[in-house]
Design a protein that fits this description.
Strand order of the largest sheet: 1-4-5-6
Shape: globular
Number of strands: 6
Helix content: 40-55%
CATH class: Alpha Beta
Distance between the termini: 60 Å
CATH architecture: 3-Layer(aba) Sandwich
Strand content: 5-15%
Order of helices and strands: HHEEEHEEHEHH
Largest sheet: 4 strands, mixed
């Protein structure tokens, strides 16, 4: 290993240690804030949809970016959401935009949030963000399981505050407590790749 390689490794180790210290400080502050405001926000945030939780999470990420620069790598994957629909002659509903995105590689159930920053023994973080009462779909469970088996920290978060805790716990270098625990004996499968658009058109004829 060359000297530049050793220098980069040493710098990376230093960066991770400093990042972990900041993440732990922010996590402690977030936990204290959540405990203090719990009675006031329980009803309001309980009525939020996923979009509102996503927006609040990214507003917080922007607030702490100066102290935790890796937050700029946090990305939302818009797999869900309402898309304009049309109705066929047989009465079936479909979305041209959704169909196009599917054939371009959009996969149902892939986690909402991506943070491609290695921490501890994990390659990166994946979060499926739900509302406070939201549940995982079979496709989402399949993706979380597959990502865990391949070295990622992948989990569900109930609301933006839970996602905030999960992110900070992850960046502190510790193994975050699992929110979603697979059932014993249950099989979790990633949805298959879609057929090509041309093959889809042939089958529809």
């Amino acid at each position: 290993m060359t000297r530049p390689d050793l220098k980069r490794l040493a710098q990376d180790g230093q960066d991770r240690r400093e990042r972990a210290i900041v993440a732990r400080e922010l996590l402690a502050a977030a936990q204290a804030e959540d405990e203090r405001t719990a009675p006031l926000r329980a009803y309001a945030e309980g009525t939020w949809d996923e979009s509102q939780h996503q927006q609040r999470l990214f507003a917080w990420a922007a607030e702490v970016e100066t102290r935790l620069p890796v937050m700029r790598l946090l990305v939302h994957i818009p797999n869900g959401g309402m898309r304009q629909q049309q109705v066929t002659r047989s009465g079936q509903r479909f979305s041209r935009e959704g169909q196009k995105l599917k054939f371009e590689g959009l996969r149902p159930g892939y986690p909402d949030l991506v943070l491609d920053v290695a921490s501890g023994t994990f390659h990166g973080l994946r979060i499926e963000l739900k509302t406070l009462s939201g549940a995982l779909s079979p496709e989402q469970r399949g993706w979380l399981m597959a990502l865990r088996e391949r070295g990622y920290c992948a989990d569900r978060a109930q609301g933006w505050r839970d996602a905030r805790h999960l992110i900070l716990h992850y960046l502190s270098g510790d193994v975050p407590p699992q929110r979603w625990i697979p059932r014993r004996g249950q099989t979790y499968v990633v949805p298959p790749l879609p057929h090509s658009l041309e093959a889809h058109r042939k089958r529809a004829r």
